[in-house]
């Protein structure tokens, strides 16, 4: 079996297990037993469970990140609107995996990974022209990213998430409305 196929099989077994039990209960042995692979095959692909998590994170998120990176913010008046136009469809396409990543078992690890990965990109795109002296740019950026991720998490973990076209309007309203104004909508 080729390396990518083995990695994908291990990742699938890991996601299945983490959807059923706490991360702390998942072992290399339990993942290997859920596949047709040997323990040696596991170690030929990963050093441990944490490496599987990183592989899953990257395999879910790389195309989303690349698509966002392609956006030419110099020609856009509203980069938030552009993100909302592009991102939900990509997330929805991987909703089963995303739902597991946003579950309580992995939410902290997944959120930290995404926030770390997207901080520089968000600073260069959404916050490119940020000039406020009231709130430091990095603080505003982290608030933005966490809000973005929280809204996505609420949406994608619903038993049946709204289709992206319907969700985009909700998403935009939530991202552009202050918490004080929200009850008045």
Description:
The mean pLDDT is 91. The protein has helices at 3-18, 28-33, 39-45, 49-70, 79-93, 95-101, 107-124, 137-156, 164-176. With 185 residues, the protein is mostly helical. It folds into two domains: 1-46, Arc Repressor Mutant, subunit A; 57-184. The radius of gyration is 18 Å and the shape is elongated.
DSSP strand count: 0
User: What number of structural domains do the residues give?
Assistant: 2
The backbone outline, from C-alpha atoms, is elongated
Major pleated sheet: none
Distance between the termini: 55 Å
Write the layout of secondary structure elements.
Blueprint: H1 3-18, H2 28-33, H3 39-45, H4 49-70, H5 79-93, H6 95-101, H7 107-124, H8 137-156, H9 164-176
Helix pairs in contact: 1-3, 1-4, 4-5, 4-7, 5-9, 7-8, 8-9
């Amino acid at each position: 079996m080729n390396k990518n196929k083995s990695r994908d099989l291990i990742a699938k077994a890991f996601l299945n297990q983490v959807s059923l039990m706490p991360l702390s209960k998942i072992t290399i042995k339990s993942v290997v037993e859920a596949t047709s692979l040997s323990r040696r095959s596991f170690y030929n692909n990963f050093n441990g469970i944490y490496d599987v998590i990183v592989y899953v994170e990257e395999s879910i998120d790389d195309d989303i990140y690349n698509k966002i990176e392609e956006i030419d913010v110099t020609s856009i008046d509203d980069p938030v609107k552009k993100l909302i136009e592009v991102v939900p469809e990509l997330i929805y396409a991987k909703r089963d995996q995303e739902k597991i990543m946003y579950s309580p078992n992995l939410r902290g690890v997944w959120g930290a990974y995404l926030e770390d990965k997207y901080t520089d990109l968000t600073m260069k795109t959404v916050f490119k022209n940020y000039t406020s002296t009231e709130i430091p740019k990095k603080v505003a950026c982290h608030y933005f990213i966490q809000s973005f991720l929280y809204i996505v998490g609420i949406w994608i973990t619903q038993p049946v998430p709204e289709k992206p076209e319907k969700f985009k309007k909700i998403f935009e309203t939530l991202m552009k409305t202050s918490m004080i104004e929200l009850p008045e909508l």
